[in-house]
Write a structure and sequence with these properties.
This protein is about 70% helix and about 0% strand. It has about 300 residues and is mostly helical. It has a domain at about 30-235. The chain has a two-stranded antiparallel ribbon. The longest helix has about 35 residues, at about 5-40. The chain is globular and about 60 Å long. It starts with 5 loop residues before the first helix and ends in a 12-residue tail after the last helix.
Length: about 300
């Protein structure tokens, strides 16, 4: 096949599979945040990619602080910077929900237009603060290099780290959504807002915190993104279409569907782009998804909720 032996093909599939896991991890974290905002709240947040960029720039700023003022902390700062990325994006998301989004609930077209305008404003703010050129964070030495699984298979350490972070965040989201009072309030508000309010749930507070948590998870996605690519003002916007695709393909209100969709899209796209051009690999993946959605419009996992 194409001049490759079976051993070569196996090595290619394994390495491309791990390359796909890095893309899967970023897409999953982005889609988890969007699944909470779009799937649970019905808000079409076109600025979601910019919250990813906030997380990436947070890592960049903290890496500069550590490098210039606390060089002894460079091997350790990254873990704390990931937490900082969440809280910075959470805080910005909380403020935006209060100032803008809360006035637009049940008006999906208005949320789309308003958040699209917000994304342009945020991109210009990034250009004004950090410049138009892409920047890179200084990564700890333990994130560099690769683990040599066999003579022909090298697995990047940063990819393994991103995968672990994604698994932890996914587990935390599942835990809080299905095993905490906050998650119970979110699910009750999603199923029947009026009834949830009548039993004492502060639905406005639930909306605000839910939106902010979704933005915070996008911030973590941005933090992991810095381990595999440089950051620019439009870095997040490059992932917004793929992120919406993951959420819709998996089922808008299904977190399990989001995980399965992100994994499928990332793996197929990673393998196809090796054997085809990058553009053709993405086009082929998109066509396959369109065909599947024509046969199953509700996505891979349809959530049953009362309207």
């Amino acid at each position: 096949m194409g001049g490759y032996s079976l051993s070569d093909l196996w090595s290619i599939l394994v390495m491309q599979g791990f390359s796909g896991l890095s893309l899967f991890s970023v897409l999953l974290l982005m889609a988890l945040g969007l699944a909470i905002i779009f799937g649970q709240m019905g808000v079409i947040n076109m600025a979601h990619g910019e919250f990813m960029t906030i997380g990436a720039y947070t890592i960049y700023v903290l890496s500069k602080v550590a490098t210039n003022y606390f060089p002894s902390l460079v091997p350790y700062y990254f873990i704390f910077a990931i937490a900082a990325s969440f809280f910075v994006a959470f805080g910005v998301g909380y403020a935006i929900e209060f100032l803008l989004i809360r006035h637009l609930y049940k008006r999906p077209l208005d949320t789309l237009l308003a958040t699209w305008g917000l994304s342009l404003i945020m991109q210009q703010a990034f250009r004004s603060i950090f410049g138009a050129r892409e920047v890179s964070a200084t990564l700890p030495s333990w994130l560099m290099g690769a683990w040599k699984a066999t003579d022909t298979i090298d697995i990047p350490l940063n990819g393994l780290f991103v995968l672990v972070i994604s698994a932890l965040v996914t587990g935390a989201v599942m835990l809080f959504l299905y095993r905490s009072s906050w998650g119970l309030h979110v699910r009750a508000t999603t199923q029947n807002r009026m009834m949830a309010g009548s039993v004492g749930i502060n639905t406005k507070k639930v909306d605000r915190i839910t939106f902010a948590v979704g933005c915070g998870i996008a911030g973590i996605a941005g933090a992991t993104f810095t381990t595999i690519a440089s950051t620019g003002p439009t870095s997040g916007s490059l992932y917004i279409v793929d992120t919406f695709l993951v959420v819709v393909f998996g089922g808008a209100a299904s977190l399990l569907g989001t995980v399965a969709s992100a994994f499928s899209i990332a793996q197929v796209q990673s393998v196809l782009t090796f054997f085809m051009t990058n553009a053709m690999g993405k086009v082929t993946t998109l066509l396959a998804i369109i065909v599947i959605l024509m046969l199953r419009p509700e996505g891979l996992f349809a959530a049953r909720v009362r309207k």
